[in-house]
Amino acid sequence: MMHEYFMKIAIEEAKKGFGAVNPNPLVGAVLVKDGKILSKGFHQIYGGPHAEVNAISNSLITEDTTLYVTLEPCSHFGKTPPCTELIINSKIKKCVVATLDPNPLVSGQGIKQLKDAGIEVIVGVLENEAINLNRVFFKFIKQKIPYIFLKVGITLDGKIATQNYSSQWITNSLAREKVEKYRNFFSGILVGANTIVQDNPSLRCKISGNRDPYRLILDKNLIIDEKYKVIQDNSDKKTFIITHEKNSNKDIFHKLEEEFFIKFITFSDNENLENIFKKIGSYNIDSILVEGGSAVISSLFKEDMFDGGEIMIAPKILGDNSAIPFTNGFSPLNIDNGINLRNIKINLYNNNVGFEFYKEEGCLPV
């Protein structure tokens, strides 16, 4: 029970790195002696010191202490020196680890180095909680495909806009606050070109002190030009357009690339979403929040290319067959052939209801 108590604190420390460490994992650490916390630390920013380093540097005492850490300490030189070396040199007596690091450069090696140095190591304390904390990292490091999470706000009859594309706002302010938390958590936001044309969103995060996500536009026919916010406001050079390779000869392609610093990802006729997501992942974008529109969301369901999502439902009814549904193109003749979402978590936003769902058990700590 004592180990679980301190590991819970380490997990809460890890969460402080939301939106700042991707594609690195969220990691927290707690240094303890005689049942008392000496210091805490977390991985604060990508490329910066790891949680163990921060916890150790925050304490005047390290000898004969116990270090609690949510992920196996790294044992190799990356952007920072190996944490195992610092732990060993600090004369820490025991290291309690929640879960192993799936990175093949680390997995098991960090534990081995600590044990070889005579440090007692315990692995598996609150392991499921630690894996849930970093399910984005775990998928990306193993598959090199971003974690895909879709978000959509709909009316009670399943519409995302009226027939003339009026959609602001379907959901209430509390639901929209949750969306900003998602934007702060995931590395990129993906929308279809029609969403840009109809809504002209900035695809930024409004949370103070956040790191803005990559802005990804799926635009097969390259209908987007320089008049839209995501093109004009690209000082951070994080706007991508994903388009068919045939469009690379168009003048607008070169104009957006050369004058507005837009990055392009191209695909051919026979490529599916999995291949497109792999290309996105090659830019170290480890996770994507898909915000629409209907065609993009429908494709995710059709190709079974989502890891989770949240459907936010407002108590509004349009009652119009010409209004825009959040999914289309399915024709099941039997109710059992419909898409059955699993691992449901219900979220309440006053009079709005969110259906959060996942392919695997557990949920993201957002």
Description:
The chain has 366 residues and is of the alpha/beta class. The protein is 28% helix and 23% strand. The protein is built from twelve helices and 16 strands. A nine-stranded mixed sheet has the order 11-10-9-8-12-6-13-16-15, sandwiched between helices. A five-stranded mixed sheet has the order 2-1-3-4-5, sandwiched between helices. Strands 7-14 form a two-stranded antiparallel sheet. The protein is globular, with a radius of gyration of 23 Å. It starts with a helix and ends in an 8-residue tail after the last strand.
Question: What distinguishing features does this structure have?
Answer:
single chain, 366 residues, alpha/beta, nine-stranded mixed sheet, five-stranded mixed sheet, 12 helices, globular
What is the helix fraction of residues, given as a range?
A: 25-40%
Quaternary: single chain
Q: Roughly how many Å is the radius of gyration?
A: 23 Å
Give unreliable regions as ranges.
none
End-to-end span in angstroms?
A: 26 Å
Which overall shape is indicated by the principal axes computed on the Cα atoms?
globular
Major sheet details? 9 strands, mixed
Helix and strand sequence: HEEHEHEHEHHEEHEHEHEHEHEHEEEE
Total strands: 16
In terms of DSSP E residues, the strand content is 15-25%
Count of DSSP-assigned helices: 12
- What structural class should be given to the helix and strand makeup? alpha/beta
Please state how the strands of the largest beta sheet are arranged side by side: 11-10-9-8-12-6-13-16-15
Report the average pLDDT across residues. Answer: 91
